């Protein structure tokens, strides 16, 4: 019983997936749903095979990954440095706070046509969109992390006569890392969304474009295949970020708890 | 200044501005602590004992009066004298180890701030782990240690740069009673080994009587020195001493005084 309880997810997860796919299949077959509305799981698999047989799929995937990572990198660099700066310099944070809130409240997806106008139909506009959307959670989490340093830890550095730079390097930055990494995990997911939505709205490359193109060609099963591919890409990028967390802050509760879980 | 005095407070006063007006945390206070002496600041909450310790430690600048540490003024205008601060090691109620550093890196932190190389820091940390009784835990994360062991590591960190004065703010306050007794004996041993000066804050009467050469009893609202009491039991003291009538007499006297406050 102990073994079964520990490994219950090995049973439940596949069962649920099988039930879901079977339910999907029989729903389509019994209710005679149009294949333009919902294709059967079987035809989605055909779509996946066709997708992977098409050489241009890899180019589109690469473009989306490239745009996402570039946008995410820009957002990370600016978000972390600006967040650290604002966290340290109180008057600057106070001065810029209204603007930060204002820009955060703007629905950034609505700005996409503007970015396409400014940066063209190529990858550049998608990189900018992706960066703008991923930027805010990274900024706010860094700001929060830098500001919420433990008072007891600060006392230690003050009593040891640490310089400002030493305090930043040995206390404030590492103490902010868990929050920064949380921001990055949210950011990477938003970066993908930014890139894909950008591709929907303008351009002729990337998985977002491919989704729109398959829809225009009424290949709904291919559209499902593209969505699955996008999910896999998104999952891989997110998993990479989560791996970075485990590597950078092995001391943190979030990592220790997962390890304990893994150890059973 | 008398060369045998290591800490000298004269006319030290602390006032805080709050929304309800000025609060006097510590009335004008004079106190001297001799070289190698173990002084305990005892009192109920709000009596200014922690304030006094933070003033001695240079974490608070007094509103008035003079603080001398070693042979130097702790404050020159608004500037802390770095060399005076060098003589002070502080242990707080919470161990406040940095969770992202191993135990040995935590202990070596003060040395790192002073530019000591890594191998020398590790060697020193290893020696200190032995002194405070946590050998073998050098490579662990702080969260892997018990509360008592974390506090030992915090003491080791405060001792790493060999300060002549150790300031302790209810260092064992968050530990269970048994661990606390054990830590008190350990502290006595470390103090007798090193011969440093200790100023120790607590609100536990028996802890104060067990540890102190001299007890400074403070009373609250406003914080000020109420009674100063010498404790002359032989060293090393052990837990069995606590049941002796002489020990109990001092405890009873202090308790009576505290109840009148």
Structure, described:
The complex is a heterodimer of chains A (264) and B (261). By secondary structure, chain A is an all-alpha fold. Chain A folds into 2 domains: 1-33; 40-256, MetI-like fold. Chain A contains 12 helices and no strands. Chain A has helices at 2-6, 8-30, 41-53, 56-88, 90-105, 112-119, 123-147, 151-159, 164-201, 206-216, 220-248, 253-263. Chain A is flat. Chain A starts with a helix and ends with a helix. Chain B is an alpha/beta fold and 261 residues long. Chain B folds into 2 domains: 1-87 and 165-231, P-loop containing nucleotide triphosphate hydrolases (Rossmann fold, 3-Layer(aba) Sandwich), CATH 3.40.50.300; 96-162. Chain B has 9 helices and 12 strands. Chain B has helices at 49-56, 82-85, 103-107, 109-113, 118-132, 147-159, 177-194, 205-211, 245-260, and strands at 5-18, 21-34, 38-42, 64-69, 72-73, 75-76, 79-80, 88-91, 165-169, 197-202, 214-219, 224-230. Chain B has a 6-stranded mixed beta sheet with strand order 8-9-10-3-11-12, sandwiched between helices. Chain B has a 4-stranded antiparallel beta sheet with strand order 2-1-4-5. In chain B, strands 6-7 form a two-stranded antiparallel sheet. In chain B, helix 5 (118-132) crosses helix 6 (147-159). The longest helix of chain B is centred in the last third of the chain and has 18 residues, at 177-194. Chain B is globular. The model of chain B has no long low-confidence stretch (mean pLDDT 86). At the A-B interface, helix 8 and helix 9 of A face helix 4 of B.
């Amino acid at each position: 019983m102990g073994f079964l309880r520990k490994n219950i997810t090995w049973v439940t997860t596949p069962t649920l997936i099988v039930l879901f796919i079977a339910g999907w299949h029989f729903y389509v077959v019994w209710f005679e749903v149009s294949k333009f509305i919902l294709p059967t799981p079987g035809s989605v698999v055909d779509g996946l095979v066709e997708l992977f047989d098409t050489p241009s799929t890899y180019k589109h995937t690469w473009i989306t990954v490239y745009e996402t990572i570039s946008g995410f990198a820009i957002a990370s660099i600016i978000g972390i440095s600006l967040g650290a700066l604002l966290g340290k310099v109180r008057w600057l944070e106070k001065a810029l706070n209204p603007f930060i809130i204002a820009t955060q409240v703007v629905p950034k997806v609505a700005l996409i046509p503007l970015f396409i106008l400014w940066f063209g139909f190529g990858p550049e506009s998608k990189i900018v969109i992706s960066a703008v959307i991923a930027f805010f959670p990274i900024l706010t989490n860094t700001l929060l992390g830098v500001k919420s340093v433990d008072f007891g830890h600060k006392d230690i550095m003050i009593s040891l006569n640490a310089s400002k730079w030493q305090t930043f390097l040995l206390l404030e930055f590492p103490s902010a890392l868990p929050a920064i990494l949380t921001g990055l995990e949210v950011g990477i997911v938003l970066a993908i969304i930014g890139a894909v939505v950008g591709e929907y709205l303008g351009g002729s490359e990337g998985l977002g474009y491919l989704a729109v193109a398959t829809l225009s060609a009424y290949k709904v099963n291919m559209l499902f295949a593209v969505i699955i591919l996008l999910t896999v890409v998104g999952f891989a990028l997110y998993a990479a970020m989560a791996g970075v967390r485990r590597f950078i802050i092995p001391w943190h509760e979030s990592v220790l708890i997962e390890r304990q879980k893994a150890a059973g | 200044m008398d060369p045998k005095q290591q800490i000298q407070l004269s006319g030290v006063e602390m006032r805080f501005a709050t929304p309800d007006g000025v609060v006097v945390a510590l009335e004008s206070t004079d106190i001297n602590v001799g070289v190698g002496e173990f002084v305990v600041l005892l009192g109920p909450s709000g009596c200014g004992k922690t304030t006094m310790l933070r003033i001695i430690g240079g974490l608070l600048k007094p509103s008035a009066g003079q603080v001398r540490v070693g042979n130097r003024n702790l404050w020159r205008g608004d500037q802390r004298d770095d060399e005076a601060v060098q003589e002070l090691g502080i242990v707080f109620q919470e161990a406040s180890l940095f969770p992202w550093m191993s135990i040995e890196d935590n202990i070596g932190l003060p040395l790192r701030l002073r530019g000591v190389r890594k191998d020398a820091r590790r060697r020193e940390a290893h020696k200190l782990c032995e002194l405070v009784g946590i050998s073998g835990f050098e490579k662990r994360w702080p969260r892997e240690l018990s509360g008592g062991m974390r506090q030992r590591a915090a003491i080791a960190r405060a001792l790493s740069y060999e300060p002549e004065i150790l300031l302790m703010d209810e260092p064992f306050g968050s530990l269970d009673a048994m661990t606390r007794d054990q830590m008190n004996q350990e502290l006595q041993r470390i103090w007798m080994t090193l011969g440093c000066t200790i100023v120790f804050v607590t609100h536990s009467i028996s802890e104060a009587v067990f540890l102190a050469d001299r007890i400074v009893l403070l009373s609250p609202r406003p914080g000020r020195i109420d009674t100063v009491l010498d404790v002359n039991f032989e060293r090393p003291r052990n837990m069995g001493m606590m049941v002796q009538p002489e020990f109990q007499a001092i405890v009873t006297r202090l308790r009576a005084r505290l109840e009148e406050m």
